[in-house]
Amino acid sequence: MEINRNTIIKDLIESHPETLAVFKKYNLVIAGGVRGPNEPIAFFAKAHEVNYDILVQELNEAIAKGGGEAVEIPTLEEDKIYEKFVKTAIILTLTVGVTFGAIILSYIAVKLNFNSIYYSFIQAHGHAQIFGWVGLCIMGFALYIIPRVKNTELRHRNLTNICYGFIISGLVLRTILQPAPHHAFRFLVLISAICEIVAICLFAFIILQTIFASKEKPGIFDKFFKAGIIWLLISTLINFGMTLHLYKHDVLEIPKFIFSPFVHLYLFGFVFMFIFAINIRTVFAFLDIKPVREKAVNLTFWVLNISIPIYFIAHVLAHRSIIALRFSQGIVFPIAFALFSFIYGLRIFERSTKELQDVVMDRSYAKTIRTAYLWLIVTAVILLIMPFLGYDSDIQHRFHGSLNHAVTVGFITMMIIGYASKMIPTFKGIDMYSLRLSNMTFILLNTGCFLRVFSQILVGINGKPLFYAVMGASGWIELAALSIFGYNLWKTMNITQEVKSPAVGKLTEITKDTKVFDIVEQYPETLQVFLDFGFSQMANPVMRKTMGKVASVEMATKMHNVDIEKFLHVLNDKINSKK
Ligand code: HEM
């Protein structure tokens, strides 16, 4: 098989399993399921910062050698650690998240009044979205991606199920019980926050243990992951404090002057740090652009992490102290600066290097990732306008709601969709279920988000019923977009792939080209012959089902320096003795 820049790795592995050792050496088979990455070699080399020419030279040498003395052939397994987190996030956002949000929005639109709905419902929606939709997606992806970018094994994998159990219990209890006026059950709201603390401490422990166990030289993205974990832990403690307030004072709503800045601390702290870390590590290859400008990215890190606590404290105290109010108005400038500095550092809108222009691959996710950063610019602009609107005025509340939507749907949800559409097929070594559905999601979500963000601003400026109506409709367009995405991704996650093997008829004679799997499959008694000749791996059924389907007798005997003639003779004796 002649290797070129568009050679798909899993096809090469299929026809030349001896190349697996080379891919393993360069840590290139860390994703892709049982058959290996469904990616062109040139792209993978760029994404993993491996020199393409040296890689191809080594692959050709391995093929020429045909495996030779006992080359270790790793087993490829599909790691589904992310799946339950991502699937649950989809269920949550399509129920208590976006659907509930769309109903709330329609109700507000019909009533032409934002204060017509109990704020506890909005907070339940908000909590389900930020900890459920966004939180679970990031946790699932992080558990899969971080060990791979750190070239190590995930530590304490057995704890991830416990983490999952606790976070789901906490989320369900909180979302259902916060708006419910049944005082007898209020203690369960507190229990919900304790469940979330346990889950998030477990997640933080697993991720930090994995990062610290890595022998890789720390990359610029490392500190973003670590800062993100710290902000997640801080958010969870604040969340506990807020539920304590609900329980102690027997109320359904958390005061807005605490809840709203808390939402931003969680988003700017935990969510932005994780998204920025993964973008720094992957966007240059995904968009075929130059690597990041480290100075600009580092500046973002420090300015943002210093500004976030000031932002939170100043906003919580703004209604009580003019100094705090001025700080809350002034701090948005360094935060906006940090966001623009990151966009400049990431080169997200810069021309492609054209290094991969000859590489044939699906790039539909690229527009989604770039559009997400357009929405981040919209977020930064609204943030900069906020201090000039009367503090606590109606128009400021409307702009605040638009800012929230531009950042949660425009930037974060768009980024989740862009990365999920790229990464999950990569994790599995397959293509996305439907590119047409991906494009429909892109168009509908941007349309819905645009209508929401700008109609809500117009509602703030002059409150015309028309703008309320457009706003009310936008939620259903976004629901359609996320439902299509959920369906498309769910179908993709459910695709299982077996190592392809051509159907073979009844074997009457074993030759050098016969696949070892077919021999044992049709004549199980030959397994002992394999073991007698030293093919110990054949004892492992997974090994037989995977490598056995691609390895011929010739390949196997070459790998294990076994006399092929003698081996074939004994095997054929065995199967003929049965007749
Ligand atoms: C995509 C469809 C969505 C719809 C229709 C929707 C609807 C709403 C509505 C009507 C409000 C109350 C009005 C306002 O504050 O502007 C609201 C608030 C909120 N939403 Fe959503 N939302 C959606 C998506 C999201 C997402 C994806 C997230 C988070 C990841 C989110 C998090 C929040 C939060 C935290 C609040 C409360 C903000 C505050 O009070 O400070 N929403 N949403």
Q: Give the fraction of residues assigned to helices.
A: 55-70%
Mean pLDDT: 90
Which stretches are low in confidence, meaning pLDDT under 50 for 5 or more residues running? none
N-end to C-end Cα span: 38 Å
Q: Assign an overall shape.
A: elongated
Number of domains: 4
Element order: H for helix, E for strand = HHHHHHHHHHHHHHHHHHHHHH
Output the number of helix runs.
22
Largest sheet: none
Count of β-strands: 0
Q: How large is the share of residues in beta strands?
A: under 5%
Structure, described:
α5 packs antiparallel against α6 and α7 runs antiparallel to α8. The protein has 22 helices and no strands. The chain has 4 domains: 62 residues, SP0561-like (Orthogonal Bundle), CATH 1.10.3910; 173 residues, no CATH class; 127 residues; 61 residues, no CATH class. The protein has 579 residues and is mainly alpha-helical. The two termini are 38 Å apart. The structure holds protoporphyrin IX containing FE (HEM). Protoporphyrin IX containing FE binds next to α5, α6, α10, α15 and α17. Pfam families: COX1, DUF1858. GO terms for molecular function: cytochrome-c oxidase activity; heme binding. InterPro entries: CHP03980_redox-disulphide, Cyt_c_oxase-like_su1_sf, Cyt_C_Oxase_1, DUF1858, ScdA-like_N_sf. Keywords: Membrane, Transmembrane, Transmembrane helix.
Give the helices and strands, then pairings.
Elements: H1 9-15, H2 20-25, H3 41-47, H4 52-65, H5 83-111, H6 119-149, H7 159-177, H8 187-213, H9 222-248, H10 256-286, H11 294-317, H12 322-330, H13 332-346, H14 364-385, H15 394-428, H16 435-462, H17 465-494, H18 516-522, H19 527-532, H20 541-546, H21 553-559, H22 564-578
Helix pairs in contact: 3-10, 5-6, 5-17, 6-7, 6-8, 6-10, 6-15, 7-8, 8-9, 9-10, 10-11, 10-15, 11-12, 11-13, 13-14, 14-15, 15-16, 15-17, 16-17
The site of protoporphyrin IX containing FE has 24 residues, from helix 5, helix 6, helix 10, helix 15 and helix 17.
